[in-house]
Task: structure prediction
Amino acid sequence: MSGTTQTTTKQSELQKSKIFMDALNELMGIVDDISQEMTDEQYLNASNAMKRLYDNKVTIVNNIMQTPVVREHERRVRRNLAPRVFMTDEQRVALGKAYRCVKCDRCISASDQDDPNMRLHKEREICNNIYASKRLSLKVGSTNIQKYLPIINAIRRWSMKSGREYHL
Result:
């Protein structure tokens, strides 16, 4: 083993030891804070338990911290993550990672138009609001319909709450 590796290992062990001791000191501080409500026997038992933890620190680290589950978790935490790739809606559609909703033209992560994500999206209020505004624009012959949309959306919400059907 080279000198650099030994130094790194010793530093790692010192850091773990410091973290362990800090945790024990914090526990002792908590015990001291509540010691007024404890009997002398309870205080002595808590102090003895922390001493046993300290005396068995190596065993605790080897039996708990070196288990395959903990080592796998540490490995995953320390791994290098692949850089996240941001794509435009057009790129997502071209790669088949998303489809455009036929009602509102929004880009939805789905495998096809019958995908459950797409069906759920079509039931959402935003999809229906966009669809209604598009249909209203066609009927009126103008894209300047901003003053009508809050009223239409309020009517739609009322019809949904009251169980009545509403169609634009």
